[in-house]
Amino acid sequence: MTPRLSQNPSYSKLLGEIRAGNVESLILVPTRREVIVRFLNGSRFTVPILPNDQQILRFAESSGTPLTVKDLRGEQAIASMTGNIGIFVIFVVGLTILIKRSIKIANRTINFGNSQPRLKASEDLQISFDDVAGITEAKDELLEVVTFLKEPTRLIKLGAKIPKGILLVGPPGTGKTLLAKAIAGEAGVPFFSLAASEFVELFVGVGASRVRDLFSRAKQSAPCIIFIDEIDAIGRQRGAGIGGGNDEREQTLNQLLTEMDGFTENSGVILLAATNRPDVLDVALMRPGRFDRRIEVALPDKEARTAILGVHARTKPLSEDVSLNEIALMTPGFSGADLQNLLNESAIFAARDNIKPIGKKQIEAALERLTMGISKPPLQDNAKKRLIAYHEIGHALVAINTPLADKVEKVTILPNSGGVSGYTRFTPNEENIDSGLYSKAYLYSRLMVALGGRAAEILVFGKNEVTQGASSDLQDVSMIAREMVTTFGFSKLGPISFTESNNEVFLGNTLINKKLNLAESTISQIDHEVRKLANKALNMAIELLSSRREQMDNLVEALIQEETISYKRVIELISISDNNNKIL
Ligand code: ADP
Ligand code: MG
Ligand code: ZN
Question: What's the pTM?
Answer without folding.
Answer: 0.63
